[in-house]
């Protein structure tokens, strides 16, 4: 019986391999129309690349890559010898007109980032915007994304989320940015470098409070890890650890009691503050104390007094 099951499994595997090979061969036989192709590439595990992505990378006359040395490893692994040209934040202004002219003249260009889906934390959006403004064809070849891989694997709400990219490297600017994100009613997704992670988590805990969070590292790779806990607990756990690479931090939305601060509480605190402080200082103090928008406190303050700020 076991031998029979093994034989069936082997036959099923052969059918899968044959069908995948046929599908890729069919794609490779089709001409690639002129245009810009945004091709998602693996974030770690090379097996995550799609058949369609392979076919575009193999057929395109040119691939624009964030780091050509890094991308050569991927192409070499799959036997693709399409020429590469660098396209990154330092040369984008110079190279963008060249790529657009190439597409305009009837060629196709594939755009890839170092890992994952192009345009997420890279300069590709300007190339896409100008291509669209010129009426050129832009096609997305979807696939791996560290943002979505982290979001879907950590057990936090997925119905509404905000990708906020990298936070500023210095603590003061980082806390200011976090304060602006504090009341967003969505799961937050952030990128962070491993050396800055512990200090960044400490700032997150200070500004956002003890929210549930998760840290995803080495996604799709051999040593993939997901650490879950509150921001303050995670900050403490990682304070003395030395990590490498980049990580994705996913933070739960604010609780209802963090955002639904009623006018009565703010007005009461404003009245008390105005007895001893100027209008400006009272507004600033109450805004910081409640973590709400300054404009809201300012308008409520005007309802109490007409004293100019």
Overall SS class: alpha/beta
Q: On the 0-100 scale, what is the average pLDDT?
A: 90
| Backbone CA Rg | 25 Å
Q: Which stretches are low in confidence, meaning pLDDT under 50 for 5 or more residues running? A: none
Helical coverage, percent range: 40-55%
Number of domains: 3
Query: Element order, helices and strands?
Result: HEHEHEHEHEHEHEHEEHEHHHH
* CA-CA gap between termini: 85 Å
Strand content: 15-25%
Major beta sheet summary: 5 strands, parallel
Number of helices: 13
CATH fold annotation of the largest domain: Cobalt-precorrin-4 Transmethylase, domain 1
What's the number of extended β-strand segments?
10
Which architecture of the largest domain would the CATH scheme give at its second level? Answer: 3-Layer(aba) Sandwich
Main sheet: strand order = 3-2-4-1-5
The CATH class of the largest domain is Alpha Beta
Shape: elongated
Explain what you see:
Helix 7 crosses helix 8 (197-208). The strands form 2 sheets. The chain has a 5-stranded parallel beta sheet, sandwiched between helices. A 5-stranded mixed beta sheet has the order 6-7-10-8-9, with helices on both faces. It has helices at residues 2-29, 51-59, 68-77, 92-104, 124-133, 146-153, 171-181, 197-208, 231-238, 256-259, 263-274, 279-290, 294-304, and strands at 35-39, 62-65, 84-86, 108-112, 138-141, 161-166, 187-193, 212-217, 225-230, 246-251. The chain contains 13 helices and 10 strands. It has 3 domains: 31-144, Cobalt-precorrin-4 Transmethylase, domain 1 (3-Layer(aba) Sandwich), CATH 3.40.1010.10; 147-254, Methyltransferase, Cobalt-precorrin-4 Transmethylase, Domain 2; 261-304. With 309 residues, the chain is of the alpha/beta class. Strand 6 (161-166), helix 7 (171-181) and strand 7 (187-193) form a beta-alpha-beta unit.
